[in-house]
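Exercise (ungraded).
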Amino acid sequence: MPGITREEVAHLARLARLELKGEELDHFAGQLDDIIGAVARVSEVADQDVPPTSHPLPLTNVMRADEVRPSLTPAQALSGAPAQEQQRFKVPQILGED
Amino acid sequence: MTVIDLESYEDALATYDPVMGLEVHVELGTKTKMFCGCSTELKQDANSQTCPVCLGLPGALPVVNEIGVESAIKIGLALNCEIAEWCRFARKNYFYPDMPKNFQTSQYDEPIAFDGYLDVQLEDGEIFRVQIERAHMEEDTGKSTHVGGATGRIHGASHSLLDYNRAGIPLIEIVTKPIEGAGARAPEVAKAYVAELRELIKALGVSEARMEMGQMRCDVNLSLRPHGREAFGTRSETKNVNSLRSVERAARFEIQHRGVALDLETGGTIVQETRHFHEEDGSTTAGRIKDNAEDYRYFPEPDLVPVAPARDWVEELRKGLPELPRLRRARLKEEWGVSEHDMQSILNAGAVDLIVATTEVGAPADQARKWWMGELARNANETGRALDELGVTPAPVPAALRFRPGAPPFRLSASAAGFPGPWSRRRSSRRCGSAAAARSPPSTTASGVCPVPACRPRASCRRP
């Protein structure tokens, strides 16, 4: 199985907006390799006749009528926010985007 | 803003074929959000329409809105698409705070509708077939306000404020296949397509599709391919182009801009990027470098079960589809006996449905048309409003026209309909409570709304 490369870790880190040092890239490459190796063992038991699944129950079409339900109050909605301003969630400057 | 050199439109087209892709997002007119029961009504009160589901709180479970699915199927059918027998939602992961879940629930490789087309009519009457790649269900994002920057843009902002009232409102994203062969008419095709799609969405009754209110938004993807080459160039994506005129301008601008960029590049490739459209001058500027699809790390949404629309439901919805707008327009043009040019004016004025409604309450078509396309259309145009925002409804028009079967045709004017004569030239007063109005109060409509277009209703307009 191909190992996770340093470059792939650096790419993932960029997507997650994490700044990693050189030695951390190597460290996490090894760790991610181990994790992927562990998950890959599933393929050993799941043969061609087992379709990939995203849900444990064989359900389809669970739908909701288009009826309004009460929302939280703004105070309730914001109660878990680390910071707020003008009844809005306050977040740090968004870097690297425009 | 930096000044960008533009190649002349003709020069760019002499070397390249434009290849376009259009992505249109339609906000559905459902009462509730796509995955929770929060209201979709537009409210100024920030974060007043959120719940654990649309805030992405741990343990909250989304359930899909049935009308959202039904609307998606209707749109798919009207676009001549196949409707998936089985499809799933997917998480689109990205690092941006406009979704509190840190992902957008969307569809990826299993859209509910795919492989369709929409025939659009160009100004000279030619029909251009736009192939549809897919229409899929997803949800809208929250609204960010950037604080501390000079212009309210992200650049230079110290922090951002998030209102999640809009987060989770149902969206249908409609994606075309690459539109090729339009050549110099590419911008016109883009505009005609978005216009036709808007009419279709309105006819289906799934959204009001008001572009100026963000209920319908268009991304214009464009690449240029040197004549005779097979491969597409690297595309640019101009986001959130929000009027028909802007769709045309953005496409035109990008053809000229891409032309310059390609000429400068020896290898003929330019970076895939997101561009922002500027309403003021019709230009676009570079935004972020786009992540590739794989960078969104799409995976099937484990909190939602698959959607498998029963075939009899799909067929029932197919039977209920309205007459296609293009065919309806052709029929009405025939019935009303108007020229292509006049029909275009009626369309541009947004008067089709009003005229139809007016004939349905008893007015002859030609008088109904003159009623709406005369002073009312001019007034709407001058005051920058839609015809149906003037407070005039079709119901009382026949009476106002003093229409009697067999009566000799009469000359239509606003004063003939009992309106104070000079109203259309008294825009500065902004209401009809003038001396003329006091002497001869305008007839109020059934709803009690003053029918005078320029009127900001005051008590004096509503005398019994």
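Further reading is listed at the end of the chapter. For now, observe: The first helix of chain B runs from residue 9 to 15. The radius of gyration of chain B is 25 Å.
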